[in-house]
Structures are given as structure tokens and as C-alpha cells.
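Need C-alpha cells for this chain, all 195 residues.
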Amino acid sequence: MMSHPAARFRVTAALAVCCLLAGCGPTSPEPTPAPASAPPSPSPSPSPAGPDPALVSWAGGYCGAVKEMRLIVYSLAKGYDIKTEADVPKAEASLKKLDTALAAAIGGLEKLPQAAAPAQEANALASGELAFYRKLRGQVTENLALLPKGGARYAQAALTVSGIDLVSHVPAVETGKVPGLDQAMKANESCGLVG
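Here are the C-alpha cells for all 195 residues:
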């Protein structure tokens, strides 16, 4: 017969082997690394209220004034279209169309209210465009007056110079440099082709 201590030893040994095979036992678990402290989540930034309504209105007036001027060059007769005296009326019609568009642009720009801070640079944009269109209109008026005496060659030159002036013109102030103006222009439908 087996002694009590020997039996107890065998039972304890058998239990220890079973526990080791089963994965349980007095082994201490490896310490799990502490989760890296995540940066605090940023507090939600306040949602922008949108563009200033007064600037959106200003942008609409500005765009309404200059929109046709951005596109008119494509509808005018070109200098190379004028080949003979018979083509002079075509040049005259284009110059009159340009004169009408310039008068409308000048009138629209003159009616613009002063833009307030921080977008006051928009006033320099408008006054630069106004000066350009006034100067160009003066040239067109002179061309129309001289056209009957100048003939086809003069008509060619007048249309070519006017076209070059319109295509090469760059506003004195970029809209992107005026705080909030680009957003205001995007919010006003009349600014679709102006920028």
C-alpha cells in the first residue's frame, strides 16, 4: 500500500503536468505594453459661417460688370477677317459691340459700393479694372471715329490692338489675394466664368 505523502505527491505532480500541458499554471504573464498615449483628439473647429453676405453681393456686382468683357473677345471680328473695304462694316459692327460692352462694364464698376475690411483690396481690383476699361473705351471711340477714313488696313489694326489688349489684360489685383473674395465669388452664381 502506498503511503499518504507519496500518493499526495503523485496527484500533485499529475495535476502540475496537466496544468502545464493545458497552458494554465503559475507562470506569470508577460507584461503587455501599455497603449501608447494617443494624442488628444482635437476639439472640433468651429464650422465656418460662410462668406460675408456683403462681399458676396459685392462680388455679384463686380462679376456682372466684367463678365461679358471676359468673353467678348471671342465674338469680335479679328484683324485677319478684314481683307477688303467691303469688310470694314464688319469691323465697325465689332467695335460698336465692344464699345457697348465697355460702357456697361464701366457703369457696373462705377456703381460698386466700397468693400469693407478685411476685403478692402477688392476696391483696388475694381478701380484697376475701371481704369483699364475706360482707357480701352477711349481707344475704341477714337477707332470708330477714324474708321471711315482709315479703310481696311486701319480696321485690321484697330481690331488687332483691341483684341490683344483684351486677351493680355491681367487685373491689377488677383481675386485670390483679397481675403474672402474667392469664396464670395463661388457663392454668387453670376461669377461662374469670372475669376
